[in-house]
Design a protein that fits this description.
Blueprint (H helix, E strand, L loop, with lengths): L1 H11 L22 E4 L13 E10 L6 E8 L7 E3 L18 E3 L8 E11 L4 E12 L11 E3 L5 E6 L9 E3 L4
Parallel strand pairs: 7-10
Antiparallel strand pairs: 1-2, 2-7, 3-6, 3-9, 4-8, 5-7
């Protein structure tokens, strides 16, 4: 019995090497663009009126197999206006309040398309998930907005991009609020 135990002990102390040129394979995930769409719920708390700012509510969808954290948005030029609609479904255009005359823009948009604005708090969208966000006071209606834009729902101009990274992160709970201050 003592020999058998000693033989087992010797077998567990063998050193096994690795042949030169040994390898393994891994593959990275693909990268897919996020999509941002207007939503009616929750409804905006701060409403627009001439010379004031209001909320913008949107859902961000992440088709990637990993979380994506957004730290900034790229805005269109301040000459790109939102189109007006009669209902929150954004299906019927509001007469006299169009993307050519509404004077509703993203707050802090500049004369240059693609200006980057850092979010107050980073937003993390879960892997293959979505996040509904109220961008607090991030729409602006100039004092020159026509009266036809009263009691109107707006389809904001498309963002020109986002500043985002993919990888391990805890998803932000939906719905949430955020914004930018400059």
């Amino acid at each position: 019995m003592a020999l058998v135990g000693g033989g087992a002990y010797a077998a567990t102390n063998w050193v096994v090497g690795l042949s030169a040129g040994s390898s393994a394979e891994s593959q990275s995930a693909t990268i897919a663009n996020l999509s941002i769409t207007a939503v009616a719920s929750p409804s905006a708390t701060n409403l627009l009126y001439p010379g004031a700012n209001g909320d913008v509510v949107a859902t961000i969808a992440n088709p990637n197999a990993y979380p994506v954290t957004i730290t900034g948005v790229d805005l269109p030029a301040n000459t790109t206006y939102a189109g007006g609609f009669t209902t929150s479904s954004l299906g019927t255009a509001q007469s006299g309040c169009t993307a050519s005359n509404s004077d509703v823009i993203w707050n802090y948009a500049t004369g240059t398309s693609g200006s980057v604005h850092t979010l107050t708090t980073p937003l993390t969208v879960a892997a293959s998930g979505s996040l509904t966000v109220t961008f607090t006071n991030d729409a602006s209606m100039t004092a020159a907005a026509p009266a036809a834009c009263a009691a109107t729902f707006f389809s904001m101009p498309s963002l020109t991009g986002v500043v985002a990274t993919g990888g391990v992160a805890t998803a932000t709970t939906s719905p949430t609020t955020d914004g930018w201050t400059s």
